[in-house]
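Narrative of activities, Objective 1.

The group set out to show that a structural description can be obtained from nothing but a protein's sequence at a throughput compatible with the screening campaign. Below is one input-output pair from the validation batch, recorded exactly as produced.
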Amino acid sequence: MPGTIVSMKKLRRHRLLLLALAALLPYALSAPSRPAVKSGKSEKPKRSKPPVPLHIDAIAISEPGVRLQPFTYEEVGPLPKDSIEVVVHASCLTAGDVQQCRGEWGPCLMPLVPGREAVGVVVKVGEGVKGLAPGDRVAVLLGTGLDSEADDDGADRSTLDQLTTGAAARRLRVPVRWAFALPLALPSGQAAGLLGAGGAVWSQLTSRKLAKGTKVGVLGNGAVATLTTLIAEILELKPFAISDGSAASVPTTAPMEAVVDVTDAEHLRLHTGSFAALVVATSSPTLELGPYLALISRGGALLVASTPTASVSISPRVLQERRLSVLAPPPLAPKAVLAMLSACAEHGIAWPSEELSFDATGASAAFTALETAPGTRAVLLEPVEHAKWLKRAKRLRAAGGAKAGAGAGAGAAAAVGSAAAAASAASAASLNSVFSVFSKVREMWEIERALARSCVSALDP
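Output recorded for this entry:
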């Protein structure tokens, strides 16, 4: 009996001890942990190295005007995960860049680097980038620099908050969504400017779902007007140059049988109301559209392409009576970009440009030419980087890239032809069918790019 009493006392003590430990357990868990003490000298915490600033040579203005000068700025932060870094060897300048530098588009953060389109080679990609790799040649499109919140017209040019970046720079960092791989057969000088001007024309003509052989008027006499005519022919439409009676109002390459003179009574008798659309690609400072509206069929459209025209005069009453629409170009989808670039490469598209040195002297000469003839197009070429690309392209062709590219290009051409046929279907046809064909173009282009990369890996030490 005494042994039983002792056991019960021990049990009570154990129970009280367990309850005490249970009560102290939350405090023990919430107490901050203390690092283990090590013998010897204490280790200092490692400090991460700050990113090395990227110095970028460019051409810029420091105040509104056209006084261009060499300029250097820094990219301090690391490359964003969704962006690429491009070494530029071609940059396109247009009359729109002259207008922006003069302040005619509105206020911009200064200094301002002109240019919205560049062509170069990818040298670095962010962690989250897919579809592009170092060594790929791309065309990049930048925004206007007027509205940093707009994300449908190109990469933001004010992300540094210290200047307005632009294409006239030796290096660019842009989100991958605004970089497009170029077919090997498309020269850099011809590719520079295609995303803006060619994209506007392509999206206007394909979104209208015009039937094969439809008459389309082209109003203008500069590089964009020439490009519009070429793209319309690729899409199997029937383009006509629209003239105001002067020889300077139409491209010099336009054949006489494809020119409609609105001051000629016989031309008006034959062509009044026969055009489904009139593409406005003129570079005139002002434009009176009244004389041209009679050519457009009832329910037709005025399609605004890439034009620097500052002022347009039009009668709302005529628009109302003839039910005409004035349409700005819609945003260009990536699949449509691919189809346009493939089509331009396959057809060896060549639109006028003046090639100049990639420096302040060359850019100043370009601005002078653009002020005199705003319909022209100037391309700044960086000779060293451009020569590197030409050498690599030659090696790719010699290694079999050209043969495979021809096969892929043939497939792309067939797909583009199908896209053109689909785009020119009846107005009831859906644009989704066109984009399904564009997917085939993308598939063939990916095959060409994959082979090109493998050739570069095999040839480069």
